[in-house]
Amino acid sequence: MKKIALEEHVHSQELGKIRMEWTARTKLPDLINKDFWMTNCMPKMLEPPEKVRILLMDEAGIDIQVLSPNSPGIQGILDPVEAVEAAIRINDSLYDFARKYPDRFLCFASLPLQNPQAAADELERCVTKLGF
């Protein structure tokens, strides 16, 4: 029996920018302990998978991770056009990350719900072309 971990977060510079803009716009406190985040989490999420993530998976007995962007992700973007463009870039980035290790990683699609038709189109693309 395989052990599958769901919604394992990945991070990128683009996702970091979305998070900073969202936090500034909403005036909500950033609930993450920044020192802990920057020291313990961020380096692990930005390293190539074989350097940290896969080693930690093996140590924990996890066979497969289903990847998703860390929050707030696409939902943190107000502009529908920008959200659609960002969703495509982020999904392509997740695909590039996961396709190097197809036996270890799967992906959840990021969908720009700010534009329902575009969200449906992106879901179809992610499932039929990217294998999410």
Number of helices: 5
Indicate the low-confidence ranges by residue numbers.
Answer: none
The overall number of domains is 1
From the coordinates shown, what is the CATH architecture? Answer: Alpha-Beta Barrel
| CATH level 1 class label | Alpha Beta
Helix content: 40-55%
Distance between the termini: 21 Å
Q: From the alpha-carbon coordinates, what is the Rg to the nearest angstrom?
A: 15 Å
Percent in strands: 5-15%
Shape: flat
Main pleated sheet: 3 strands, parallel
- Give the CATH superfamily: Metal-dependent hydrolases
Quaternary state reads: single chain
- For the biggest β-sheet, the strand order reads 1-2-3
Task: Explain the overall architecture.
With 132 residues, this protein is an alpha/beta fold. The chain contains five helices and three strands; from the N terminus they run E-H-H-H-E-H-E-H. It has helices at residues 13-26, 34-46, 53-60, 80-99, 116-128, and strands at 4-10, 64-69, 105-107. Helix 4 packs parallel to helix 5. The longest helix has 20 residues, at 80-99.
Please summarize what this structure is:
With 132 residues, the chain is α/β, with parallel strands linked by helices. 52% of the residues lie in helices and 12% in strands. It has a single domain, classed as Metal-dependent hydrolases (TIM Barrel, Alpha-Beta Barrel), CATH 3.20.20.140.
Break the fold down into its secondary structure elements and pairings:
Layout: E1 4-10, H1 13-26, H2 34-46, H3 53-60, E2 64-69, H4 80-99, E3 105-107, H5 116-128
Parallel strand pairs: 1-2, 2-3
